[in-house]
Design a protein that fits this description.
The chain has helices spanning 33-47, 55-71, 142-145, 169-177, 182-199, 203-207, 211-229, 250-319, 321-337, 360-365, 371-379; strands at 16-17, 20-21, 74-77, 83-87, 90-95, 98-101, 108-111, 119-123, 125-130, 135-140, 146-148, 154-165, 233-244, 345-346, 353-354. With 380 residues, the chain is an alpha+beta fold. The longest helix is centred in the last third of the chain and has 70 residues, at 250-319. The N and C termini lie far apart (181 Å).
């Protein structure tokens, strides 16, 4: 029995020490650990007939231990996880989310990788805590982002890689056992692939319209390299966040881009003007050609008609030359004198010179005088 529980001691009765009475506890005293152990042993002896050191008690204890051991094989796989069951360290199967069971340790163990979660790795930039803004800010990492192009220019490329574990069962096993540092591996392979693709490209397409082509090429190269490693990783997307020249020459590059934009604008305007003028010129040319073709057909038709008429007249002339000659003469004179003013002159011995004639043509074409002129003439 401890000395403090003895009724008398070298310092008298009660819980005293060499310096007098100690502080008394306020409230109920905490239970004694020895008491609790003693009560538990007593209850176990009451439950087990013959005591827990008898054969039945030992058997019951062993059965309880085995039951707890078997129940320890139940495990739950969350929605974004896949369960990889190992039997003595060897991958035997992959289980889906939900409640599952494996043989208890040490026969089988389970690993729960986040197989359905999409991971993001940023290259050329990193997020740091910013206490002033009470959040996180982006800091450039030049040693990762500065790259050399195919035309020996330097470009600053920040990009992100989205990846996940391959959904097939073999992909989960490869991810767990073939690579030691998945994030570091993906980051190193992505940076190497981006440098290779940028090194094959010119700087102008990189800064303007070739981003989709570069992203697709980098994604294919990363996936090919990871597959050769047997990493069990699927690259879902590569996104170029920022593509700029170095800060020291960015103003000069912007001037060049503005000049190129002006050049393209002028070229587009010139092409628009050409598209407007050329069709009009072609239309006028086609119109002139059609008019010339019509005149040609008209002239040929008239020539053929005249030649046909001449041949017909010639046939009639051969039949009656005198009559035909007289007729041609009369028709010709009628055609020549039909539209001219004529004076008939009798130049014979009995002629009286110029014979007056009645100008019927002028009388028929002359207008009658107005009504006012007739009345005024009558008054005179």
């Amino acid at each position: 029995m401890p000395w403090k529980n003895q009724g008398g001691g070298p310092w008298g009765s009660g819980p005293k020490g060499p310096w007098g009475t100690g502080p008394q506890p306020v409230g109920p005293r905490p239970p004694d650990l020895e008491d609790l152990l003693r009560r538990g042993q007593d209850r176990l002896q009451q439950i087990m007939p013959g005591g827990y050191f008898s054969g039945v008690g030992i058997t019951l204890i062993i059965l309880i231990i085995i039951a707890f051991w078997l129940l320890s094989g139940f495990f739950r796989v969350q929605s974004e996880e896949r369960g990889v069951v190992l039997r003595f360290g060897k991958h035997v199967r992959t289980v889906d989310p939900g409640l599952n069971y494996h043989l208890p340790y040490p026969i089988e163990t389970v690993l729960l990788p986040k197989a359905l979660r999409v991971n993001t790795i940023s290259i050329g930039m990193t997020l740091i805590d910013d206490p002033a803004r009470r959040g996180r800010s982006i800091r450039d990492v030049p040693e990762e982002s500065l790259m050399l192009t195919g035309d020996e220019n330097i470009v600053d490329v920040d990009f992100t890689v989205l990846w996940r574990i391959k959904p097939d069962p073999g992909g989960v096993g490869d991810f767990l056992f073939n690579i030691q540092n998945p994030e570091g591996t993906v980051k190193a392979v992505a940076e190497s692939a981006m440098r290779e693709v940028i090194g094959r490209s010119q700087i102008q397409p990189i800064l303007t319209g070739a981003r989709n082509t570069i992203e697709q090429g980098v994604q294919e190269l990363i996936q090919k390299t990871l597959d050769s490693y047997g990493a069990g990783i699927l690259v879902t997307q590569v996104q170029m966040q920022k593509v700029d020249p170095p800060a020291q020459v960015i103003d000069a590059f912007r001037d060049v881009q503005a000049a190129r934009a002006n050049l393209e604008q002028l070229q587009n305007e010139a092409q628009t003007y050409a598209n407007q003028v050329v069709p009009q010129a072609r239309g006028r040319a086609a119109q002139i050609l059609q008019a010339a073709e019509g005149y040609k057909e008209q002239a040929v038709a008239e020539a053929k008609g005249q030649s046909s008429r001449f041949l017909k007249v010639y046939e009639e002339y051969k039949k009656a030359p005198d009559v035909t000659r007289e007729r041609i003469y009369l028709e010709t004179m009628e055609r020549v004198l039909g539209g001219a003013d004529k004076l008939v002159y009798d130049g014979g011995p009995s002629g009286q010179g110029v014979v007056p004639y009645l100008p019927l043509g002028e009388l028929t074409t002359k207008r009658p005088p107005a009504t006012g002129q007739q009345s005024s003439g009558g008054n005179r």
